[in-house]
Amino acid sequence: MSDPDNSNQPTEMNALSAETAAQLPKIVSFDTLSRCGDEIWIENNGQIYRLRRTKQGKLILTK
Fold it and tell me: Domains (ranges, CATH) in the chain?
């Protein structure tokens, strides 16, 4: 017998395996990263990068 409201069917998110979920992109808002301003400094392999938001709302990454 079919379930008309599909309450027993897994949702798309529930159907994702842990492996698949780990492969999805991690999305973090710039506001969360920058908290107190319009720029953040990022260290990667000993190099320092500056990520800043312009007045037009675009992001610029410089070394």
Answer: 12-62 (2.10.70)
Task: Considering only the C-alpha atoms of the chain, give the largest distance between any 2 of them, rounded to a whole number of Å.
Answer: 62
Say if pTM beats, i.e. exceeds, 0.90: no
Torsion of CA 25, 31, 34, 39, to 10 degrees: 100
- Residues 57, 44 contacting (CB under 8 angstroms): no
DSSP string, 24-45: SPP---HHHHHSSSSEEEEEET
Paired tokens of 44: 């990667």
Per-residue model confidence (pLDDT) at position 23: 81
Residue 60's DSSP bridge partners are 52
Beta carbons of 41 and 34 less than 8 angstroms apart = no
Q: Token digits for 62?
A: 């410089």
